[in-house]
Amino acid sequence: MSSIAQKRGFGATAWDFMTTVDHKKIAILYIAAGGFFFLLGGIEAMIIRIQLAVPDSTFVSAGTFNEMLTMHGVTMIFLAAMPILIGFMNLVMPLQIGARDVAFPFLNSLGFWLFFFGGLLLNVSWFLGGAPDAGWTSYASLSLESKTHGIDFYALGIQISGFGTLMGGINFLVTIINMRAPGMTYMRMPMFSWTTFVASALILFAFPPLTVGLFLLTFDRMFGANFFNVAAGGNTIIWEHFFWIFGHPEVYILILPAFGIFSEIFSTFSRKRLFGYSSMVFATVLIGFLGFMVWAHHMLTVGMGNIANAIFAVASFAIGVPTGIKIFNWLFTMWGGSIKFTTPMLYAAAFIPSFVMGGVTGIMVATAPADYQFHDTYFVVAHFHYVIVGGVVFAILAATHFYWPKLFGTMLNETLGKITFVLFVAGFHLTFFIQHFLGLMGMPRRIATYLDGQGLNTGNLISSIGAAFMALGVIILLYNIVITSIKNVKVGNDPWEDGRTLEWALPSPPPFYNFKQLPFVRGVDTYWIEKMEGKKEITPAEPVGDIHMPNGSILPVFISLGFFIASFGCIYRVEKPWGLAVLIIGLVVAFGSMLLRSLKDDHGFHIPKSELVNDKDKGVRA
Fold first, then answer.
1. Mean pLDDT score of the chain, rounded to an integer?
2. pLDDT at residue 5 tops 50
3. Distance from C-alpha of 137 to C-alpha of 560, rounded to nearest angstrom
4. Angstrom distance (rounded) from CA 46 to CA 468
């Protein structure tokens, strides 16, 4: 191979990762950074559960508990679950549709670094006077009254991180619309690519309302505006509308890629085409559409009135229909299949009952009269975690085992994977199932402690023991990753032996240009079709020719770093003499880097045909 190709291979240095625009390396960055924040959010969750394990606990103060609670929610949603899923979307979707990269590789890199520096900014608040303490939703009345700078870090950190996510969503949409391989019609796209497409559309429409809300909150806190200040004529309920117009589609931004991952796993390990593919596609689109129709079911107790409550309750019931279609299609995919219970398949099987339980309690809390009983109790905590952990986190753990060989060319240990599965799933149900009953007994959310003799002791202790099991499962997963990386036993292109889609036709890990020749797609599960016909290679759609690939760039790091620096200046511009100078320096770095990018015309580089023809190990092989 040429020195250029070697430079962009997977034996990468830190500099390679800082400058890369390769979607597979960016996937590693997303998964690694998201994994770090997942561990951070998990530690915060353990502190919460240790505090609540016994009554009258003084393990942490009430103020610290509020910070832990807020940062756990923000970290897990914005900095762990979503980035890890975006990482898997980055890895798999371009391979599944037969593309050489995403449509805008530079923006792909910029999206990651904005997310990373936004998350860093949020967590720096721990060391600078206190983390945000108004809950992950940061309702305006609480967030305006908070005396520390925690909420300012929240508003700016999520704003920066959100811009990165928005770029990623637009990038994925353009990639899927414009860069599908010849023959890859929309109704031949794998389900993971379909769910990536719909989730990206949700990102496009859901993040602007959050951006507007955070913008108004920033102006209220930093510049004395009164958008949410009721005493000055503002409206505090408007924040709830802005937040939940983002917040409910956000649930589907998380769960739809999870549905896509499980669809691939059910199909692969049942050795069957996904049952009812067309209905699954339309159910995915319908879930995306209805996800925007239900936001105010989070607000049934704020006094909107019976008509508004009824409309949003009915819309919430309706979303159960396409979700039910998916559940039955997964069951019918397994029915009559030759099932292999690998670690990913175990997570997929455990996901169905867990997610159904979350869905059923979702119908309960969407029933307006009943919600007056459930609202702001631990019943809602249990419901939310059954959906997010029982759906999204199970999918992340399943995808980690399923796609690890494609990403790194090695297989995670199956025995350790199954031990992690047992500990995590048992711990999950132990932690959250009992919380339904704690909620029905009247235990409020977001309380730092509770009195003895209220009947809440046993349930909370069981819940905390379950959390310890989950933590132990994650520790074993980390051990599994370490020993797999040390042993470094390489696997082939189709390590599960039953791969059905295009990514399994490529070497593990794939070459940086993915496909030497763009593949010709002949149907759903196109790689399976080729294998069943005994073909040694995927049918090419073009002759071998020169490939044009983009150059790497350090500028995304500097653009993101500039906004990171400017945020400190913005927060401290009044009380610190250096504040305004730091703000200006940060903006100069960010906008100067943008200007440099626009002045520097990046032509990329070519891989000549001769190199591709002679490079036997890097071509497509079956």
1. 92
2. no
3. 25
4. 7
- Tens of pLDDT, residue by residue over 190-208, are 999 999 999 999 999 999 9
Are the CB atoms for 609 and 619 separated by under 8 Å? no
Tokens 């909420």 correspond to what residue?
151
Contact call for residues 439 and 432 (beta carbons, < 8 A): no
User: Residues 505-538: pLDDT tens digits?
Assistant: 999 899 989 998 899 999 898 999 988 888 878 8
Please give the torsion angle defined by the CA atoms of residues 28, 29, 32 and 36, in that order, rounded to the nearest 10 degrees: -170
The architecture that CATH gives domain 25-553+602-618 is Up-down Bundle (1.20)
How many whole angstroms separate alpha carbon 502 and alpha carbon 525? Answer: 8
Give the integer Cα–Cα distance in Å for 24 and 95: 10
Per the CB < 8 A criterion, the answer to whether 607 and 2 are in contact is: yes
Domain limits of the chain?
A: 25-553+602-618
DSSP per position, 307-368? HHHHHHHHHHHHTHHHHHHHHHHHHHHHTT------HHHHHHHHHHHHHHHHHHHHHHHTSH
3-state helix, strand, coil in the chain (%, to 5): 70, 0, 30
Q: Of all helices (H) and strands (E), which one includes residue 607?
A: strand 605-607
Phi/psi of residue 154, nearest 5 degrees? -60, -50
Give me the mean pLDDT over the 96-123 stretch. 96
Residue 291: strand, helix, or coil = coil
DSSP-assigned letters across all residues of 50-90: HHHSSTT--SS-HHHHHHHHHHHHHIIIIIIIHHHHHHHHH
Mean pLDDT of 155-162: 95
> 563 phi and psi, to 5 degrees?
-65, -35
Q: How far apart are the first and last CA of the chain?
A: 21
Extract the tokens encoding 542.
Answer: 């073009």
β-partners of residue 547 are 607
Q: Which pLDDT band holds residue 332 (cuts at 50, 70, 90)?
A: very high
455, with CB counted inside 10 A (0-12, 13-18, 19+), is exposed
- For 495-538, list the strands marked E by DSSP: none
What's the pTM?
Answer: 0.94
